[in-house]
Amino acid sequence: MVALLFIVSWYFFGAVTNTHSWLGIVIVLTTTYCYMNIALRQEPSPAPSVVVPKPAENEEARLLDDADKVESGKEDRS
What we know:
- By secondary structure, the protein is an all-alpha fold.
- The protein is built from 3 helices and no strands.
- Helix 1 runs antiparallel to helix 2.
């Protein structure tokens, strides 16, 4: 994208260019073209399966009990 913006700047706004900058543009555009062709030819990889752990049946009750202990100051904080 930057290479194309550089060309637009040269063409429309008269930005100063030299051989080094033109070679950089050619290298960037050629590399982008090659990588895009490689990416399009690859088979899509399957999405990784995500295993969501099932919470313990009484976890909600345990958390509420812990909250009550903290509020009443009975919890051992060591």
